[in-house]
């Protein structure tokens, strides 16, 4: 079983709600009000719960993609929106942040797992595709919070280090993996392996990360799903409004990379069109061209590049293996020519940095990569965004509401 598709997501949610709010008359229009907590204590409600987890995670990822892409210089702000200082790399503790939606995605998934565990018998839970998927969404929600925010809180508690989300994510991915394997659910097993590979790496367990990543097929992708109801905002802002441009970014220098496709927008007279600010040349991203285009959360090509990074962390002896893995992703994943193998570790790391950034372009992951690489020493270090903020602080709204932040 795969996770619920776009076409079944809303239908499943509607069916689950109807099952717990059915009325006597087909055409009755009286609102049943809020669904009671007891009404959700039913196996019929579980599919709708998981749809909600998927929806919340997708909403968080899509909602934060514009600001993360600007902050990480994947896209240049060439528009008219008042984004404060974010395009300049200054990030403040205001509410221009995916904090609320990301915390909602985490809470809904985590509490949903508890609820599903109360509804199903242990033997049912241990093989339930819904339990497996719920754990996958809890894992990705926690990974997102750890990658995007400088620090965090859990349910109104005290401030915690961002890395605690990686530890929580690893636990959820591990649980998802066990359930998926018991039930023979290949897609969910791959999602759990891919998610756990990343958070193991972010905690310094590169051997464990590489082992997990090796289990994921190159053609696999796990998506934050969007559709005509919850639309891809990057598509709209780059194809309809010209708010963000590839001009002025790293990828302007790589016009033929199929992982980061773009084109120069031309006026009727063949002059270069400007962005919504009237002055920035509009180089239009082509990764997302439809409002229903999904956003990848994990994929097999990323796993190959993650394994390549693990190999380079072994030193110069890891260079041949790293290039073999990067070139497998390039050739088999994208039909690209292989990279020539270099002799120096510094050159290999420079290639690795670019390969990872290109592989995950405009997926909300680059700011975290720059953040972790900036903390490295030696050739693994990348200071391309030196002087810019690399994570979001806890927003003022949380500090105002949370007693742990009050003096």
What's a quick, concise take on this entry?
Helices cover 49% and strands 6% of the residues.
How would you describe this protein?
- The protein is mainly alpha-helical and 407 residues long.
- Helices cover 49% and strands 6% of the residues.
- The protein is built from 14 helices and eight strands.
- The strands form four sheets. It has a two-stranded antiparallel ribbon. A two-stranded antiparallel sheet has the order 2-3.
- Helix 1 (6-21) packs across helix 2 (46-71).
- The longest helix is centred in the first third of the chain and has 26 residues, at 46-71.
- The N and C termini lie far apart (50 Å).
Layout: helices, strands, pairs:
Elements: H1 6-21, H2 46-71, E1 76-77, H3 99-119, H4 122-125, H5 129-148, E2 151-152, E3 160-161, H6 164-183, H7 186-202, H8 206-214, E4 221-224, H9 233-239, E5 244-245, E6 262-264, E7 283-285, E8 295-299, H10 300-312, H11 319-334, H12 345-359, H13 366-374, H14 396-401
Antiparallel strand pairs: 1-5, 2-3, 4-8, 6-7
